């Protein structure tokens, strides 16, 4: 397997993992919780979802052939809490991820050597992918953090539960020895 193929496989897996964290978080929340914000200068989860989706659709529609900042994108509107229902939030979430993952899965090893533009600035395809990995991971982390604060003791952990690290490690080592 070439390094380019390995890279594409790794980033696809990592992005699916980031999405899964968001999915599991959003599934724990009730409609009103999606709109909670710490203060008027903070973003609600619904707003963060709207922003991530807007970014994905703009950046990844015709990724290799057009500037990643589409004229049709209204980035400022992404920061208004206008999604009314949980269904709307989930639809926007899924639409952005669908556009992004479809384009990512369509990339070839040769595409990694290409250059794309974002707001007129040239980026290697690898740099553009890594830029989005950082951006999307940051925002999904915000979603998880906000949700944990909202849910409190009702939060269902997405990783190793507190106090169970050693048991988890031992289980993993045992599984890998077989």
TrEMBL record:
<dbReference type="InterPro" id="IPR034660">
    <property type="entry name" value="DinB/YfiT-like"/>
</dbReference>
<protein>
    <submittedName>
        <fullName>DUF1572 family protein</fullName>
    </submittedName>
</protein>
<dbReference type="InterPro" id="IPR011466">
    <property type="entry name" value="DUF1572"/>
</dbReference>
<dbReference type="Pfam" id="PF07609">
    <property type="entry name" value="DUF1572"/>
</dbReference>
């Amino acid at each position: 397997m070439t390094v380019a193929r390995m890279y594409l496989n790794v980033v696809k897996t990592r992005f699916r993992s980031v999405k899964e964290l968001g999915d599991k978080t959003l599934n724990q929340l009730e409609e009103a919780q999606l709109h909670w914000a710490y203060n008027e200068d903070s973003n609600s989860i619904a707003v963060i979802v709207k922003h991530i989706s807007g970014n994905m659709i703009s950046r990844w529609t015709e990724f290799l052939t057009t500037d990643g900042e589409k004229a049709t994108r209204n980035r400022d509107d992404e920061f208004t809490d206008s999604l009314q229902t949980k269904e709307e939030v989930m639809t926007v979430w899924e639409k952005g991820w669908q556009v992004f993952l479809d384009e990512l899965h369509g990339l070839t090893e040769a595409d990694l050597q290409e250059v794309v533009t974002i707001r007129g600035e040239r980026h290697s395809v690898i740099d553009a992918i890594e830029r989005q990995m950082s951006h999307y991971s940051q925002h999904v982390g915000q979603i998880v953090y906000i949700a944990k604060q909202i849910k409190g003791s009702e939060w269902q952990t997405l990783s190793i539960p507190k106090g169970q690290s050693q048991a988890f490690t031992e289980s993993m080592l045992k599984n890998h020895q077989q």
